[in-house]
């Protein structure tokens, strides 16, 4: 680790911040979407599901380009940025968060939706007959019973953002300390044929992802033993 | 070490799919720097018309292409965006000695979509913009040239906080084209056909000339088609195309 | 001044290919059995009463409280109901205790009254040892008892039970039925009990709503419906009457108790019988034979004078006779299934006073 320059640690910290922020936002945004997709009887609900899943099949370059337009002065991003006097949300940490949220959305929505689907109608009917309002039933019955889906979604969302490369490259602008995340740093090392550094970083990312996933699995096992 | 292995596996798959159909049509595989994409396509068409040989073009940043070549990619010629990498290939033993030559000289341009923004050197001095887009200097020489220009004008320190880097020259261009960066250093060849906005052709004395060199690779040593292409590139038809796309020529070649 | 204490229900609509048009009105006291063959729509009616399902037309008023009519629909969580599903459906992520308390009203202080109520329910259903277990580790019968307890602890005004014993085996059913009977005896909560099993219904029902093919055939007091010869129930081979009786005396030497019903007394073997306790008697129509004169020197213990109220042909050559006990046949009803030939030979007719010999009296276990 000594042969890594000091600013690599900035990139590492930035990457973790980005992944954590994006994951939290993803959970908040994906849960109502997953709930609606699971419970709704609207005929167009699978169309919505397909739109949510689009980032799975769109190449990052295409997605990145549309994000550039969306975040830029001619898009909603520019409008929002204008609120604090900036021209664009690209090249900002906030822009990266938005890009990561959009790109990792299907990885979080899908497992949560599946978990809600697996519930069936019965637990919620029972809750209703026990005076639980729909909101109380959601928090005290649906969410705990869908625990596994939330855990899977969290792990996938986090890991996907950490490893995500194409989008970040396209809208980040590689500004050290702000948008130069790990994947960009590795890309630079490869570009300059510094394979030794590149493989250290890549190996580090793999180990990190492995540790995160493993600890999530162990926590889940511990949690499911209580009360079950 | 892990990267090498990973690349080998990936390239094995890529190679298997590239080794396509007939072995009889004389064909040559060329690795082309991204900024030369459109010119290369037109040259390939002209080459086919003249000689009947097919050219398979692969595009990417010079760094990526160099890496692939060191990992045994089936390229026979490399059209790099710089002169260092072909030199390195020859010294690595992957390129044919004495086959290196400059096929084009890239021109750096300061460009903005806003027709009033760029007037010349003064634009950089005044600095009335929030973001200046350049290409990642290690990815393509245009990035290094941009930095060199700013340093020559003694404006680098002032402008550095405003810099945003695109991973390659195409991205650097996109940042400006989508308006996310008001202004940026791009390749003249990228502005072909684009008459809008405002531009300043950076004077050659401000940066080291971007010599884009070609090299024949060991894998292409016995190929008739490859040899023919190397010759074609120096000829008048190719030159006409290259100039059309906004490149210049060394006074020597 | 008494408020209308009735349960008024009407639901009409289609579910897929199934058409429902059910209307009935029963008293808001005691157990009302919703009885009929599988697929007749009884579960649908129950779910509509709970607000879990909504048909195109619905009307549900409980003791004057409008839960649903043409302009209003109170959602399920706003109806003061307790619902017991066929499969207990306990929350797997909560312990038994927390399942039980899930629907209990939140109060700032746990008053003595609340705790008493909790303990009463635990006792009533025998849940004491199960409180800290996880639903996964309970047997089917235990789970169902917890489900009933959970419904009760939500302090409902109406208890809805959807075939609560159907998913259990014979032995477990026999274990649980007494708990339900205790519930019936000790709580004044009205219950709607859906079942396709007449044996369960016989032990529990005060009122009966009979359904077939999505419609209500008849509704009324259980004993009336059961013995009504106009209904198919009375004409089946298993036809019987269920009478509520009070223990009046007990002969320990012979192990026999005397039970009084409206219009007469029965003697039945019982292991023990506290005087004044209430029991339900079931008397099968096939166990009743008739004589025109008081029989003498017979081993049958129960011989009661009764008035013939009506006679209805049944089966190939049989007749089902409806009898009324007490003066003028105004008391409890009995059914007697006799041969057509006997009816003709004895010259029996409506209005005649005869003697009913009851060979077997089935007592629901305490």
Model description:
The complex is a heterotrimer of chains A (228), B (253) and C (366). Chain A has helices spanning 7-39, 45-57, 60-71, 76-82, 93-119, 122-129, 134-145, 147-163, 166-172, 182-191, 195-225. With 228 residues, chain A is mostly helical. In chain A, helix 1 (7-39) packs parallel to helix 5 and helix 1 (7-39) packs antiparallel against helix 8. The N and C termini of chain A lie far apart (44 Å). The model of chain A has no long low-confidence stretch (mean pLDDT 86). Chain B is α/β, with parallel strands linked by helices. Chain B folds into two domains: 2-105 and 211-244, Periplasmic binding protein-like II (D-Maltodextrin-Binding Protein, domain 2, 3-Layer(aba) Sandwich); 108-201, D-Maltodextrin-Binding Protein, domain 2, CATH 3.40.190.10. Chain B has helices at residues 2-18, 37-51, 62-70, 84-92, 121-126, 141-152, 156-159, 169-177, 224-234, 236-244; strands at residues 27-33, 54-60, 77-79, 101-106, 108-112, 132-135, 163-166, 183-187, 198-201, 210-216. The longest helix of chain B is centred in the first third of the chain and has 17 residues, at 2-18. Chain C has nine helices and 20 strands. Chain C is globular and about 70 Å long. The chains are: A mainly alpha (228), B alpha/beta (253), C alpha+beta (366). Chains in contact: A-B, A-C.
